[in-house]
Each structure stands twice: as C-alpha cells, then as structure tokens.
Amino acid sequence: MAISLGFRHGVHPPEEKGLTNHLPIRRMPYPDEVVLPLRQHAGKPARLCVKVGDHVERGDTIADADGFMSVPIHASAAGTVVDVGWWPHPDGSMAETVRIKVDRYAPHIPRPRLVPHWEGLSAEEVVRAVQNAGVVGLGGAAFPTHVKLTPPKDATVHTLIINGAECEPYLTSDHRTMVEYAPRVLFGIRVMMRSLGVSRCVVGIERNKPDAIAAMIAAVPPDLDVEILPLTVKYPQGAEKMLIKAVTGVEVPSGQLPVTAGVVVQNVGSVAAIAEVFETGLPLVERIVTVTGHGLRRPANLIVPVGTKLRDLLAFCDGVTPDAAEVIIGGPMMGQAQANLDAPVVKGTTGVVVLAREETRHDQSWACIHCGRCLDACPVFLNPSTLGELAQARRYDDMADMHLADCMLCGSCAYVCPSNIPLAQLFQASKAALRRQLATVP
Amino acid sequence: MTAPTAQRLIVTASPHLKPADSTPRIMWNVVGSLVPIVVASAWFFGISALLVIAAATLGAVAAERAFGRGGSLADGSAAITGLLLGLSLPAGMPLWMVFVGGAFAIGFGKAVWGGLGQNVFNPALVGRAFLQGAFPVAITTWPTPGGGFFTLKGDLFVAPFVHPTVNAVTSATPLGLLKFEGKGTSLLHLVLGTTGGSVGETAALVILAGGAYLALRNYLNWRIPVSVLLTVAILSGIIHLADPHKPDAMFMLFSGGLMLGAVYMATDMVTSPVTNLGRWAFGIGIGALVVVIRIWGGLPEGVMYAILFMNALVPFINRATQPRVFGTATRRAA
Q: Model's pTM, two decimal places?
C-alpha cells in the first residue's frame, strides 16, 4: 500500500466523531412540509417550472437547470406545492423557495423511470444523465458534478481522486457511506472513470476511519485500478488542493483548477449519488446528514429528504440540551451558524452540528501579538497575521498582492489564534470587498 | 424538548470552535516560568533582589493601569515587562529609580505605541536603556552575591535625587573583569550563577529550564534562543581560536545577560519576526552583535543593544522572509 506524504501545516481540532461514527445510517420519516430553495448549488439557480397548487410526485422536476452551470431541483416528497416565495436559506440569506405540503398517504415511490444501461451510453449521455438527476458535490461546496465530468478539451486527466478524508470535526456521513455502501461507491467510481476516460483512481481516507478503509479495500473489484490511500488525520486534509498534494505530491498552481494537475476530485457522497442515478434512476432528492453535537440529545446519521427544515430534523433527534448554544450547518470549522431553524437541509448539507455553550468562541479578542502560529497553520502558506492587520486597516489591494485569493477560508488561522482574532471572517469580508471593487471598475 | 428559540441561538463566524489557547494564558505562563528565576535571584542576592524586582513590576503595572486600555492588566504582559526589567538590574539599585524604569518601560516602551502588540522595541529593554542613560553609575554598581538574606545591598531606600553614598560591597561582573582588568572567571561560578551581575541574569541553568518549558508548550519559539546562542558560541569560538586572549565560547555563553536576553527578551513575540526563517535571521543578528560589542565595543556587555537594534529590523526581516505561497514557484517579495 502506498504511503501518503501528506501536506504541510494544518491544525488538529478535537475530532468529536465518536458521537456518531459507529451509528448505522437510518432513514428519517417525511416531515409535514419540505422547502426547496432554487439555489442549492454553485452556479446559476434553477428555473422554476411548477406553480402553486400543482401536485408533484417524489423525484419530479420542480425547477429546470438554467444552462450548463446549473442543475435541476426535484421534489423530495410527494405532495402539493403550497407556496413559492422567499424563505430562509442555510447560507444566511433569503432565497426563492418552493414549499411542498407532504401528502401523508402517498407511497413516496418515484414514478417508473427508465434506468439506462449505463455501459451503452456515451460520455456525453452520462454527463447529461448526471445533470438531469441534479447531482452536485455533496462535500459542502455543491459544485455541479456533471461539470467536473466535463474537463476542458485541452486538459488531460490521468487520475480520479475520491475525497473520503472528511476532515471536519464531528461529521461522519462520508465515513458511514463508505462503511455501509462501499460497493455502491465503487460502482459510482466505475461510471466516473469510464466517463472521464481515466484508468487510475485513488480514494483518500483519513486514518481515523479504519473500518471505512477496510470496507473500501474489500469492495474494490479486480478489474478496476482503484487504490485506497490512508491519509494523515489533519485538518484541512479534505480541501481539494491539500488532498491532491497528499495523493500525488503535486501542488496545484496558485489560481488554477485541479485539472491543470491532471486530476479530478470528487466527494464520496457525490460518487454514491451518481451510482444511485444509474442503479435506480432516482434523482438527488435525499442525502446522508450527520446530526450531532454535544448540544443534541440523540446524535444520528440520517438519510434526510432534501428540504427538511432544521427544526424538524432536530426534533426527530429528540431536540437539544439546555446548554445548546449554536446550530451549524456543515462542520464547525467552515460551516454556517444558523439564525433561523426554518432553514432547510439542502443538497450541500453535510451535517448539522449543535454546539454546547462551552465549545463556542468567546467574544473577547486581544491584539495580535505576532506569535506566528497562524503562519504555521495556514495550509497554503499565507501570512494571516499581516493579512489580518491589513484587513482591519481596509487595505484590500495590499491583501490581494499577498495572495488573499489563495485563501480558502478553512479557518485554521483563526482556530490557532491565541488572541481570538476572527481571521477567517475578516478574510471573507475582504474577499467580498475586493469583488465589489472589481465590479465597480468600469 | 426542544429546538432552541431564536433568542437563545448564537451566531458566530466560522470557525465556530473555541481556540485551543489564549494570549493571557501564554503571558501568565511566561510569568509562571519566571518565578524560579526570581527565587534564584533571591538565593544569590537576598531580599534586595526581591525588592528590586517588586519595584520594577510595580512601576510597570502602575503605568499599564494608568495608560493602558481598560482591563489590559489582565493579559499579563505588563507583569512580564516589569519582572524582566527587574531581573536585568543590579541588586543595589535605588528602588525609586527602578520604579521609574518600570513605568518608563510600559509608558514609552508600549503604551505610546498603542498598547499590546503594537510596540517595535522590547519594553523591558526600553526601560533598561532609559535607566542606563539616566543613572549610569547606579546601574553598573554590582553588589557581591551572598551574605545574609536580609542584608540590604546598596542604597535601596535612598530618596529621589539625593546622591547615594556608596556603601555596598561591590564586585565587577565577569565581563567587566575581563574587559577592564583582563581577569577571567571560572566556568563553574558562571554556570552556577555565583558571580556579580544583574539579579536575574546569573542563574543560567534556571533560565534555560524556564525556556525549555515554554518552548515545549509552544509559548516560545525555540529558533530564536537556539540561533542566538549558537551564533555566539560559533563566532566567539572562532575568535578564541584565532586569538586565545579573547574569551572562549563557554565564557561568552554563560556570562552577562546573554541567557536571559536570548531566552526571554529576544523571544518576545511582539518584537520578533513572525516567520520562522526570519526568526533564524533575527537570532543570528543578535548573536553576532553581542559578540562584536563584547569583544570590540567600549562596553563590557551588549545584549541589550543587540536586541534593541534587531527589534528595529523586524519589519524588514518580516518583509524579506514572507513564506512561499502554495502553488507558486518562489518566495514573493511583499
């Protein structure tokens, strides 16, 4: 077995995966209502194609893809469209959203659908089927998967890398997917490899998931060149560029896409979703979500219909403890804190973490003492100490010169900062300010 | 049950987890690691040492209280400045001078720059440089270690601006002996700290132990003391080989304020470089300056000026040693 050389820097937050990494995935019953934002993926939001009063079956398209950089949205339960309007989105904004009152007595089986024999399909037809199924990256960024299956004409892809690192604390959905659905993941890998025309695939899994590594190794078919590569347990091992460095030893050039290094990276959950498209014909209407945290009474790994409100999800897990303080969608390092529990689980929701009060950040921060720990933590070797001071002085152009664009907001710098300076937040705001500046330049 | 109400939810920016460490914890750990050095200074110089350290700390804390931001005493940095200043002074120094030095260290070494994290020069050394200029005799009157614990050394309680009558039993420091009288000091005395000198600088082994503790807990960057001490050892070793009348490496390492300076003053995070490469450059620069000042300069000791000079260069060192950004070929010039 090959050895991963890993990547430099990074941090070791408490893993906290023991709450759920042993719990089998269970299916959550349908809530009374699902709310489906039209914007659940990177790229253009989908275009609405239903109206209030329409009856929809599970898996019916309710919004079409708007161009190539877009995917359709499907009804995640059978029921009646009761409203189309603004609704809280888990990214903190309001978004155009379809609300479906779930039919309690519907069988919730999808319409009979043609499951194409995938081996008879051309690469273009596979890409189209993946797009039509609404599959996006399930690791959090929700980048449309069919776009990744369509590398630029001039690029040569030699390796498919499957991201099973799951380096965020608390989250175990990819872990459980690999343990329980390893053959399905391998089937998805087979489809992707054929569509991309690559002969080699590496699945990177952090060493803290030995059962997942074993299950995946056992499931590798003899005719596929798939290597299961154990990775060092370090955050952010699952960041695309860190993973590529750990697997291939190559640094993706600053400002470039992974494809320039000849690789395509896809998350384990997305691969399983592709497999499901060609196994059952069911589009992406549900996903595996880790619902966990020391502020939650009964943590679980759940198959959740997309569009389930956080309120219903937490209630199904017996609710929160008295010292629950913060509800986060995603992991605690890069996730989004929620102000409104009516926001739904969307396609990119990897987990819902309820933090207890003593785990959360305190308000007080101190001046930067130039200890340099952030420089030793930053996985892309920036100087967050100086960048932070520039951000507070609003010297955004100087920040751009210091490669702010390479910052992926992983939060490692802020996590190690003894002065509790919200560096990731400052950098996010600075990136937004730079975008506004660019937009106003004639 | 059940789901929390909107009022009870807090919303913070990511990352949401509490950081593993805090600035006050670092500062108070440094204070804690200085306690054995204070005890050693009392062992060598008696109650006088404790009085000098207390006066310097009081001066620093009083100035922080007067000029600092509200609550800034709690971060512990003013206490470090006061303790380090006190440890770098002779045991017989009049306490009013020491107190003024402590207040000057914080007032002009830190507060005028904008408080914690903003100053360019190490505040304790700013205070010491001020005392060196204002009271050159008092700061170079070195009482002999030993004697009874309660024997006061020098004119500790002399009133301000009264000419002190020198009545202490004094002895020159090893570096002074060498420079002005051409006499050596045995290595055993140097290592054990039973020589003349500032109250806290003679106990080299205790200082090294404190530094090792801080380095293991990542409260001190080991690259700076290692590069300072290595540079001094190598440079003075070469010079000693070329001219055996010059002091050897062990004498240079264990005499004067080098240990205290290398372990506790050069490593002040605020006034040293943020990059690891820069820390090596910073340490090598200090070590080289110490050797140059001690061997060819007019002063017997040069640690203070070496560190202050390199402090001034820190912004340039930082700029010249910016890390190579991931996915780029070369270090960039900022």
A: 0.90
